[in-house]
């Protein structure tokens, strides 16, 4: 479970407190997430609208899930679905890769996300996958229009995420790095303390 003082720990508490509308015939309350490269040749992967974090280049689905989960929680906590009057939790969610779905499910459970949302489904039908591609294409066109107006101050943080809880930097949040090796980053003092028993074995001054 994430430290209560970590950025991810705070997101978990906020997410777990969100109301969860019951699905209806007109509102299924089902969300699909996936990771795709940004358009315009920009480095990194789509991260809602909060900043950038490289995900596809991470070495395993477990490492990918560690970064993806805080982004998912943040998206719902900040009410990214502007058609809804208040921030709400999903009724269910799925992704396009079964291994990633399993890894994200495990990560959600490890962080203490509400039990009914720890299970991530997998999309398999060609129609569903085509719908995702269509949605991303539409988003890409919109991004091309608004990208020049988006803050770009955190491009240098594209490779960084908290070594303990996986939180990645956004426009209004920065990570602190290890004062000795300058190579490991944390979102809070508690996350740094939690990682120290392992990190001290390899921490060396540059």
Summarize the helices and strands and which ones pair or pack.
Blueprint: H1 7-16, E1 30-32, H2 61-77, E2 92-95, H3 98-111, E3 121-122, H4 126-146, E4 176-177, E5 185-186, H5 189-199
Parallel strand pairs: 1-2, 2-3
Antiparallel strand pairs: 4-5
Helix pairs in contact: 1-2, 2-3
How would you describe this protein?
The protein has 206 residues and is mostly helical. The protein has one domain. 35% of the residues lie in helices and 6% in strands. It has five helices and five strands, in the order αβαβαβαββα. The protein has helices spanning 7-16, 61-77, 98-111, 126-146, 189-199; strands at 30-32, 92-95, 121-122, 176-177, 185-186. Strands 1-2-3 form a three-stranded parallel sheet, with helices on one face. Strands 4-5 form a two-stranded antiparallel sheet. A hairpin with a 7-residue loop joins β4 (176-177) and β5 (185-186). The two termini are 32 Å apart. 33% of the residues are buried. The model is unreliable at 40-51 (pLDDT under 50).
Question: Which H/E pattern describes the elements?
Answer: HEHEHEHEEH
| Tally of helical segments | 5
Count of folded domains: 1
Helix and strand content put the structural class at mainly alpha
Indicate the proportion of strand residues.
Answer: 5-15%
Mean pLDDT: 78
User: Total number of β-strand segments?
Assistant: 5
Largest sheet, in brief, is:
3 strands, parallel
Shape: globular
Give the strand line-up of the largest sheet.
1-2-3
Uncertain runs: 40-51
Helical fraction: 25-40%
Distance N to C terminus: 32 Å
Radius of gyration: 17 Å
